[in-house]
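Re: beginner question about structure tokens

> Can someone show what the tokenized structure looks like for a real chain? I only ever see the sequence side.

Sure, here's an example I had lying around. Input first:
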Amino acid sequence: MFRAMMDRSTLNERLARARRKLAESGADALYVTPSTNLFYLAGISFHRSERLTAVLLPRGGDPVVITPAFEETHARSMTPIENVVTWQETEDPFRKAASFLGGAKGVLCVEPSTAYDDVEKLLAHAPGWTPRSGAGVFAALRMVKSAAELDAMRRAVATGLDRFRKAFASLAPGVREADVSAAFGGENVVQFGPSAAVPHGEASARALSKNEAVLIDAWDNPEGYYYDITRSTFYGTPTDEYRRVWDVVHEAQGAGIEAARPGVRCSDVDAAARAVIEKAGYGEFFTHRLGHGLGIDVHEPPYMVAGNDILLEPGMTFTSEPGIYLPGKFGVRIEDDVVVTATGAETLSKRPEKLEPIPA
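And the corresponding structure tokens:
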């Protein structure tokens, strides 16, 4: 996967916002281990392992990268952070990391996917420090996307939509779900007929027959940012029931997107879509939230779900993906990627305008 080195202006902007969020939360330093949060903050894309690589950011100081000596060149190739401190295999890297905390005591904001064991090892050398989850800090940093991030997502969407065109063109009697899935590219789920009634199923050896529902859910992160798109169609001549369900789901998706604008609660976006499906009599068959945030992770805040009172802001991205799943018959889900604008919302992936069955 292509990973361009983070430019210095992006690094400085993100570090400055991270320091502000630390101050607002009452924390004194940020501790970030390999994760999408480390990639976001510093450009470093390492797999998590038993060897410590981390970034420490004191609220009032400069960031430091801690990494094994043999990884120094690799780390420097990804981040503009100049202070890269290395450790040898015979050293305790947590002792070295603790020396950069910037004081004998304080509140340490920890990247939320960091192993508990790694926190214990670090604080064994800094007993005056109190750990605190950094989930809220990173959510606040990452929910609003920059113009460059949105451009990366648009390129990802274009890749995804091209894959859908090729996948639908490949459908023929006897082709297996697993065959279409393997040829698609990226992560995906391909479901035919009654299999599509399982909201999160998996591709199998099931073969396509004439006059069956087709559902493909696909996601991938070219250049580090995800698309997440689902398309539902029919191979052959759709039944009246399928047409009705597809139209209800399409209307619900549009209602959710139309409800999204700055200052609206995430829960209200979910409710707008859900109301359409409930009014049509299919409420019990819409079994999941409307959608989720999207970016470096395929699922990230904010979540379009009942009870989530986060207010939308320009630059926030999310999926609108209502579904109706009729056990033993078929399922329909339509998913597109959306960005909140200054006045409303824009779909990054062009919504289907109507059901377009695939001739059998």
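Each token stands for a local structural state, so reading them left to right follows the chain. The mean pLDDT is 96.
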